[in-house]
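User: Sequence recovery, please. Input:
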């Protein structure tokens, strides 16, 4: 499986491609960073990110694109730019019918280092060791993109198993609920079929009063 990792950003957007092998072995195939100038109009910066990402997908034909999930981590303008860059990359993947997966930074850090709060230095060191690179990838955006791709390649099999398990649980629950509903309907049908005694409580009370009156008429104490 080929996984394209994307560390979204407007100033620097990291792109990486890895290929998974049996077990947890992974091989780095390509890595790059898209740079745009801060003084350029927003639409041109987004177009540049989209064009390079689309070109990568056309050349490398990844099976899935793994993108960092954006969350509040600083200035609103920075978060907005990161989210917009992630959006145009996801759009490029959608046009090519390539599945997109999102992973939070803590998920990536935990998968690569075992610590969800690892710093940039630890991440770069571990991804260099995992991929057997001769030197650490630079800048950090390149290392982050590689880490995203590796994270997805390791998490995807378990996510598929969990999804399959959730599907089986849902089917079992649906079957149980259907059987319970059928049982309730059958019970209601049986209850409706049982003949009920005629007469209301008032009718029964009048009958008892009449019986007492007849008894008194015959000199029987009630």
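Assistant: Recovered sequence (222 residues):
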């Amino acid at each position: 499986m080929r996984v394209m990792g994307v560390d979204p950003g407007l100033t620097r957007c990291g792109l990486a491609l890895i290929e998974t092998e049996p077990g947890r072995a992974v091989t780095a195939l390509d890595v790059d960073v898209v740079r745009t100038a801060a003084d350029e109009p927003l639409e041109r910066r987004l177009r540049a990110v989209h064009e390079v990402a689309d070109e990568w997908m056309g050349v490398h034909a990844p099976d899935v694109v793994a993108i960092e999930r954006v969350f509040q981590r600083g200035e609103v303008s920075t978060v907005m730019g990161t989210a917009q860059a992630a959006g145009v990359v996801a759009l490029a993947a959608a046009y090519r019918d390539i599945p997109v997966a999102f992973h939070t930074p803590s998920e990536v850090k935990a998968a690569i280092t075992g610590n969800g709060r690892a710093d940039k230095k630890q991440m770069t060191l571990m991804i260099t060791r995992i991929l057997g690179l001769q030197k650490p990838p630079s800048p950090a955006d390149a290392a982050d993109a590689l880490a995203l791709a590796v994270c997805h390649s390791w998490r995807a099999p378990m996510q598929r198993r969990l999804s399959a398990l959730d599907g089986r649980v849902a089917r079992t629950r649906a079957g149980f609920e259907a059987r319970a509903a059928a049982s309730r309907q059958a019970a209601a049908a049986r209850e409706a079929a049982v003949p009920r005694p005629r007469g209301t409580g008032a009718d029964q009370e009048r009958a008892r009063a009449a019986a007492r009156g007849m008894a008194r008429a015959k000199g029987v104490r009630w």
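The mean pLDDT is 86.
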